[in-house]
Amino acid sequence: MRGAQRHTRACSPFPIIHVPILSSLSLLLALASAPTATGPAQDPAQQVARRAVQQGRYVPLEGVVRDALKRHPGQLLEVELDDGVYEVEILRADGVVAAEDGAGRLMRILLAEDDAALAERLQPLLEQAGYVVDVVADGRQAEEIGQVEDLQAAIVDLGLPGLDGLSVIERWRGNGRDFPVLVLTARGRWHDKLAGFDAGADDYLTKPFQTDELVLRLRALIRRSHGHASPRLQCGPLQLDVNAGRFDLEGQALALSPQEFRLLSYFIHHSGQVIGRDRLGEHVFDGGHDPDSNALDVLLGRVRRKLGTDLIQTVRGQGWRLAAPALLGELFKRSARDRLDNELQQDMLTLLAQAEIDADGQLQLRQEPNDARFQRVFSGAYWQITNSSGKVLLQSRSLWDETLPVAATGAAERNLPGPLQQSLRARVQQVRLPRANEPYVAVVATDRSALDADVAAFRQRSAMALAVLVAAWLAVLASQVHFGLRPLQRLGTQLERVRRGDAQHIDTAGLGAEIAPLGDELNALLDHQQRMVARARTSAQDLAHALKTPLSVLAAEADGEGRAWRATLREQGARMQASVDRYLAAGLTADHRERTPVATVAQAMCRLMARVHGERALQFQAEGIADDLQFAGASADLEEMLGNLLDNAGKWAQREVTVTARAEEEQVRIDVRDDGPGLAAEALAQVTQRGVRLDERESSSGLGLAIVGDIAASYGGRLALENAQPGLRATLWLPMG
């Protein structure tokens, strides 16, 4: 349609047809005369479609509102006026179109039931419970409605014609439709229930059943689908009891009209969300809201006055939202309200002190309260006394001919609507006077607009103060970040100098006490990396040195022939292979995360060396090593170091080689001692140099003890040699695990 076209939702596979009157008169008359599911159409809108055509234009019949949305089971007709020409929107469908309400009342649900008698019995009961019900008897139609319509819940029978209920539910869930589904069926066996839940049903009710149970289950499903497990919803001082259908404000029941209840229900079910005018009007007025009407604003004004608070907030250009008040403002409001309640209590005591029963048994006041506001009409200060049946016996002049709508047992403070649509704060108390035949209800009330104004002003001022505090806090935070990150900026600059090669370490002097430990750790990391690079470079040099001699021998024997030449080739090739294997097995990268038992490695290496030097019958022994003593490094590195030391000791030992280890100053100390001739003083300085061998007769690579020292140094340890009288003692200090 053109102009102010309505958005309508169809529960039908048939399209919505827009029929311009001037061009489609015959089609319109044919469609309008089509029979409906409920017999001949009697709705005024249908009469417009049938008879109200004059000279190609629609003329509404008397009493027909031109923009009213008319619904009935067979057709949906909407009469719209656009530039003087009436157009009719015709929906060919079975079922109804309705807006749902977020309060759990007047929600749109689908009833898919092929038993016509049961569906006819359930529909009015569900509508009486507050739901708008679409009834279908075919599975395919139910499946299509669930795919395209905004349903709050669905009740599905499993034995539907066309498409069974399980398939309907599975297709809904497969397409992401997540509204609650309650299965209502005569199939009550356990595997039928499992199949229903597996298909995606949320609840399962077998026939026969109690309708009250069906309604309660449906309410619970819808409530949980909105994220509310409890039947009581709350937003600040406002509480909705869904089951009782009652709103309480600060513990006191609110008197609301049906439309006011629907509006407030929709707000509390969407608490915190911004709700636009069209959306709110559609739900509150059941789809019949004119966007140009001020009915919604009037309704909001009435509800706001009854709430007496700013729970409903206006979001400019977007709509409204229900939000709990800020804690500070709420505390101020409660304090101010308590002060006002105390004043009302004093006025109540003053009023009751003057009340008495005269000789005729009539209620009278010896003297009216002195407050001049009680004498000024509609001043905002009122008092009233009624009997137990609610008849007004005495009241202040300020009420004029109005009354305060109240009935009470006991005593309580509450909010009341007053004359001129004022919002009142009232003290209500039931009293029994001497010589009285019945109790009386006394009310003292005052206009709470001053209280609300004070609360609003406080909230505005506190919001401004809070904004200033937040701005100041952000400024302080920005300055802290700026000045606090300066040491990190200096650290980054120094790291860049290290990367460029302008410095070897980070100067921690200007980093501050908080960042200096980080600089120390980075320096330790740089030192470790430098040691690893130096070790890799040294290892490459050592390997080149180890291969140099065999290659020289091979070059010298290149022209040789015969068995001697082949023997030399095999010998030198074996030496080169041994050198390569040693560096492949050494694990040149120190791993401080691994923990290696020293006793286990020492015993294994002693057994190995006893076999290597078996022709000399040497004894290799590991003595006095605790089982829990661990080396903080790779086992391959420890094996390489001990193997090298034991092998060198075995070459010079006379009868035995001994290995001992113990913890010393948070390090592992390992001693390898032989009973050989030892070394001269000048030889001790040379023996750890790369490529130096004291016994050139031994078949070795010529790398000496330097490899052991390099591996130990990579872990932050060291190697020391000294004469032991007799023999030589090699001592390793390594990190302890």
Q: Mind telling me the C-alpha Rg? A: 48 Å
The tally of domains stands at: 6
* Overall geometry: elongated
Mean pLDDT reading: 75
Total count of helical runs of at least 4 residues: 19
- CA-to-CA gap between the ends? 84 Å
CATH superfamily of the largest domain: Histidine kinase-like ATPase, C-terminal domain
Largest sheet: 5 strands, parallel
* DSSP strand content: 15-25%
With strands numbered from the N-terminus, the spatial order across the biggest sheet is: 8-7-9-10-11
CATH-scheme architecture of the largest domain: 2-Layer Sandwich
Helix content: 40-55%
Uncertain parts: 1-106, 693-702
3D architecture notes:
The protein is α+β, with helices and mostly antiparallel strands and 737 residues long. The chain has six domains: 16-92, no CATH class; 107-225, Rossmann fold; 232-324, Arc Repressor Mutant, subunit A; 328-455, Beta-Lactamase (2-Layer Sandwich), CATH 3.30.450; 485-585; 586-735, Histidine kinase-like ATPase, C-terminal domain (Heat Shock Protein 90, 2-Layer Sandwich). The chain contains 19 helices and 31 strands. Helix 8 packs across helix 10, helix 14 (512-556) packs antiparallel against helix 19 and helix 17 (635-652) runs antiparallel to helix 19 (706-714). The longest helix has 45 residues, at 512-556. It starts with 15 loop residues before the first strand and ends with a strand. It comes from Knufia peltigerae. It catalyses: ATP + protein L-histidine = ADP + protein N-phospho-L-histidine. It is an enzyme of class 2 (transferase). GO terms for molecular function: DNA binding; protein histidine kinase activity.
